Amino acid sequence: MGAEAVVAVLEATGNTTPVVVVLTNNQIERIPLMGAVERTQAANEALKCGDWAKAIALRGVFFQGNMLALKLLSRAKPPTKEQCCVPPPFNIAVMHVGSPACGINAATRSLVRTIIYNGDRIFGVSNGLVGLIAGQLKPMAWSDVIGWCSQGGAFLGMNRITPEGKYPEIARRLREFNIQGLVVIGGFEAYRTVLSLTTERGSYQEFCIPMAVIPSTISNNMPGTEYTIGADTSLNEITKICDLIRDSARGYKKRVFIIETMGGFCGYLATMAAMAAGADSAYIFEEKFNVRDMQRDCANMVAKMSDVIERGLVLRCEGANKNYTADFMQRLYEEESNGLFSCRTCILGHAQQGGKPTPFDRCIATEMGIACGQFIHEQMVKSLQTDGTMLAVTKHSACMLGMIGPEYKYTSVEDLSHQTEFQYRTPKNQWWMKLRPLLRILSTHDSAYTTDNKAPVHQQPVDINCTVN
Question: Where is the Phosphofructokinase domain (predicted)?
Answer without folding.
Answer: 91-375
